[in-house]
Amino acid sequence: MKMIYNVKDKPKFGQLIVFAFQQLLAIMAATIAVPMIVGNGMSTSAALFGAGVGTLVYVLFTKAKSPVFLGSSFAFLGSMATAFAGAASMAVGYLGLILGAVFAGLVYVLLAVIIKVAGVKWINKLMPAVVIGPTVAIIGLSLAGNAIGDLQTSNIEGGSPYVAIICGLVTLAVTMLCSVYGKKTFKLIPFIVGILAGYLVATCFYLIGNATGNTALQVINYSALTDNFATISFSSFISLPDFTFLTALGGFSEISGAYIGTIAVAFVPVAFVVFAEHIADHKNLSSIIEHDLLEDPGLSRTLLGDGVGSMVGAFFGGCPNTTYGESVGCVAITKNASVRTIVCTAVEAMLIAFITPFVAFLSTIPSCVMGGVCIALYGFIAVSGLKMLQKVNLDDNRNLFTASVILIAGVGGFALNFGNVTITEVACALILGILTNVILGRKSKKQKSN
To answer: With a threshold of 0.70, does the pTM exceed it?
Structure first.
């Protein structure tokens, strides 16, 4: 698809700030959700800062050729829980998070070295369009339940899901109208306009509900803002995030060899699973910007950027990072692939992490509003994967079976658990697709030779 801003283009400074903020809105909910789910006092501000730092590292390693943001990885949730479950103290648990990210990052470094030597042609043969297309579609479809769940969620107890749906659908409608019929500026910032519209509608419902005593109309929770401004002081505006390494420093004296082994077993296998998703994300992004990122800057560089960026990000925020489908979807919908936008997004994430009221304001955006946005984001990921199948001959049973197996395994939620290691539905679908394609491919060659 034709980009309004290509990878190396330079939007004007004022536009850049706004475009970057839109990217930040697209990735923020998921990025701060991981530390909230893991708990144990993990800081959402620190996770946001870590994602920003990790993204800058990624951009550096990829020579500013890949326009995607790195955020907290959900694939490592079980591994992170293990880090705290087996820790002798909170400090050891935080140190375990950093060690786990290092182990996972080293897997990426090792894979990058192997690919640098062996090249990427074998990957293209192993994962042609008939394999990677449905897999990318599954990445979007596997998130569909999250989007619809958020669409119906009220952030206040007693809030009506129907009111939440109205706010979310208004957000979606305004986003679509801006993207399709808006002038150039609005085409580039449909998510910001959509979220503001949904936020305004939710606020109107809140005020009506507050005036009439009808809690069902209230789906937005302002407590994060009101609590922040309860005491007006400098510390209420600017505060240092609880960086992971600050707490982890106290864990060195208590850590044991057995615990380090547990961390390695919990994190290393997951890194191999995320590797498959890494390839799918970059194949998808390559099709959107019409430039093969696996060849230039090269898969070895994207892996190094992802791996080292994840290590650095976890040092500050505790969460291993990964390339975000929400970011890829934002690039596709806005047709803005400028890497400068990604760099600016990373800087904004790092700065905002220190501004307490701003973080509080962002946290008041209702789940239903973000659900409306995510319907578009996740849908674009799914559709971009299906577009890869356009040039595939589905009259050939080999291709038909391969695509069918991937789609059904992924949509059906086929995942495997081995202790604390989870092979996600995306990874399982990809593995099954590769095996199907290889098996049927060999049979096809034998039949041709006969």
So the answer is: yes
